[in-house]
């Protein structure tokens, strides 16, 4: 089933809870965004999981090294899923995947900044992550590269696919039509004036493609 995933790239738990009060009913995955993880840490994971026990809570900690101790922090706080960078060492990605099993947790491998996505995805896929995510980082979103197009590099993988980077209401249906299991929306939900209304529209759109 395709999932609607909100990325809370905010600074405080209070800001995140305010957005969630509006979008919470419509989303499947709640991401504690990297800025929020840096600002409030594992406490953000704990508080939001306590408030939304039935949602999948994803700690976007973008692990680059120390696969086991880094993922321990998020899983112990109640995260259902963590991210590790596709650009990190093979050993790190394998360690995160192995460690997640202890917690019955999931792993998303984030391909942000990976140059040969197709080749790297094929390699990483063999280790059995839950998701491989094409991700156009903030700092290159103005170049016109689209994660919805980049998903073609994931063709044929066994893992589920995710796409992130600038997806908003105007591009959301295209993302749902593409081969994307987890559609990640950050600013397009968390930084609009009417997050509840936009989330409801997205929920209705994705419902046609589930
Ligand atoms: O991980 C991220 C940035 O590194 C963001 O969460 C991701 O890009 C989604 O946010 P947006 O839709 O605003 O691009």
Automatic annotation (TrEMBL):
Coiled-coil annotated spans: none
Top class in the EC scheme: lyase
Catalytic activity: D-ribulose 5-phosphate + formaldehyde = D-arabino-hex-3-ulose 6-phosphate
Hydrolase recorded as keyword: no
Lyase found in the keyword field: yes
Keywords: Lyase, One-carbon metabolism
Recorded metabolic or biological pathway in which this protein acts: One-carbon metabolism; formaldehyde assimilation via RuMP pathway; D-fructose 6-phosphate from D-ribulose 5-phosphate and formaldehyde: step 1/2
InterPro entries: 3-hexulose-6-phosphate_synth (IPR017553), Aldolase_TIM (IPR013785), OMPdeCOase_dom (IPR001754), RibuloseP-bd_barrel (IPR011060)
SUPFAM superfamilies for the chain: Ribulose-phoshate binding barrel
A Pfam family: OMPdecase
Domain Orotidine 5'-phosphate decarboxylase: 3-202
E.C. number(s) listed in UniProt: 4.1.2.43
Family the entry assigns: Belongs to the HPS/KGPDC family. HPS subfamily.
Name the record gives this protein: 3-hexulose-6-phosphate synthase
Organism (species): Lactobacillus kullabergensis
Species lineage: Bacteria, Bacillati, Bacillota, Bacilli, Lactobacillales
